[in-house]
Amino acid sequence: MPKRLNGKVVIVVGAGTKGEGLGNGRASAVCFAREGARVFCVDQDMASAEVSADLIRSEGFEGRAFRADISNPDDCRKVIEECINYYGKIDVLHNNVGIPSMMDILETPEDAWNEIFDINVKGIFMMCKQVIPSMIKGGGGSIINVSSLASLRSFPDASYSASKGAVNSLTMNIAGRYGRYNIRANVLLLGYIDTPLARPAWVNEKVRETNLKQVPMKRFGSPWEVAEAAVFLASEKASYISGAIIPVDGGLNVSM
Which of 24, 20, 16, 28 is nearest to 69 (CA)? Predict the structure, then answer.
């Protein structure tokens, strides 16, 4: 049976996992590889990126790790250059990045606000800016930016919510401006996903119960479910989908 991403080269930014277990970026990197893609695993933590690349290679697929801090413009440029030097092209850019502050607007100092935007927005902006010329030269591509339901609802994290709203808008801008070059840009809008980054909040049983009650499907999502949505958007099965904000949230967006 033909694989959906045979012959494609995918960059996954945020391919590592913070803490023990499986995060959205690592799961997506593995799923891209299982569908036939060669995967360039990028993370600020090189050891974590190597774990993802090793996992891919252990299954007999092609993966390579690369360290980059995407708040640094030079690092963003080097990601694109190194991927092209190694694989010859770039078909898909999957930006799975985002850090929270967990602070209300009145509690948020300016430096914390700037840090969130440097990573969550500026980093994604620079990665997209660097990859678009390569995709134009290659005849098109798919950009998948990971956002959050917090961008559309009132969550108790002002800078994170605002930054993810900016990611949505940036993605729509790219879809509108670069569709003529066969470049598609879409957003994955995540709800409560059971990852090492999210799990500490659910140590508090009341918080866990409250969050579960908000989800119509009455369970948290799996990183593999996020990964499957990403693979679909990367594939030719989604060849006429661009400018979409696609919830992966068990219906949370319609219950809040």
Answer: 16
How many other C-beta atoms lie within 10 A of the C-beta of residue 204? 10
Q: What CA–CA distance (Å, rounded) separates 73 from 120? A: 14
Phi-psi region of 241 (alpha: psi -120 to 50; beta: other; left: phi over 0): beta
**Residue-wise pLDDT tens digits, 51-89:** 999 999 999 999 999 999 999 999 999 999 999 999 999
Dig out the tokens for 211 from the structure. 């969050």
Question: Is 181 a residue of the active site?
Answer: no
* pLDDT tens per residue across span 117-173: 999 999 999 999 999 999 999 999 999 999 999 999 887 789 999 999 999 999 999
Active-site pick, 160, 178, 181, 192: 160
Q: Which contiguous run of DSSP H or E holds residue 113?
A: helix 110-117
Contact between 125 and 170 (Cβ < 8 Å): yes
Single out the residue of 20, 39, 48, 31 nearest to residue 195, CA to CA: 20
Task: Please say if the pLDDT value at position 200 is more than 90.
Answer: no
Categorise residue 43: left if φ over 0, alpha if ψ from -120 to 50, beta otherwise. Answer: beta
